[in-house]
């Protein structure tokens, strides 16, 4: 169970840290980290993004370090943009302006964000 609580704690921290970067009154509905490209286990510097799905848009933010600390908005895309489908065979998202790898522990957030606007995994 510690892993489950750890994930919710991480999500809460991401949301708290992202709020100051958003527009006044904008509400975060879902949040998750993503890695730029397919580099998950090599020795290159890994760039990480924080994705905040709000009531107005999907906001892609640069992350500082490894502590889920968004530092600036990289881009905003329309809220109607589909993030998935995600699965063990396909954990990539290419609809946010760059190819992103999403860890399986965040698939629930991605699926819920898509379902909230009417997209469902096949």
SSE diagram, text form:
Elements: H1 2-18, E1 28-36, E2 48-54, E3 57-63, E4 70-78, E5 92-93, E6 100-101, H2 107-116
Antiparallel strand pairs: 1-2, 1-6, 2-3, 3-4, 5-6
Question: Could you describe the 3D structure shown?
Answer:
A hairpin with a 6-residue loop joins strand 5 and strand 6. The protein is globular. 22% of the residues lie in helices and 30% in strands. It has a six-stranded antiparallel beta sheet. It starts with a helix and ends in a 6-residue tail after the last helix. The chain has helices at residues 2-18, 107-116, and strands at residues 28-36, 48-54, 57-63, 70-78, 92-93, 100-101. The chain is an alpha+beta fold and 122 residues long.
Short characterization:
It is built from two helices and six strands.
């Amino acid at each position: 169970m510690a892993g489950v609580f750890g994930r919710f704690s991480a999500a809460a921290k991401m949301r708290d840290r992202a709020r100051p970067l958003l527009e006044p009154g904008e509400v975060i509905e879902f949040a998750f980290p993503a890695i730029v490209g397919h580099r998950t286990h090599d020795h290159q510097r890994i760039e990480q993004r924080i994705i905040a799905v709000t009531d107005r848009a999907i906001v892609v933010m640069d992350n500082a370090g490894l502590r889920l600390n968004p530092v600036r908005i990289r881009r905003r895309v329309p809220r109607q943009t589909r993030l998935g489908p995600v699965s063990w065979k396909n954990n990539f998202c290419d609809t946010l302006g760059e190819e992103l790898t999403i860890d399986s522990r965040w698939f629930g957030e991605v699926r819920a964000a898509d379902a909230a606007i009417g997209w469902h995994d096949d």
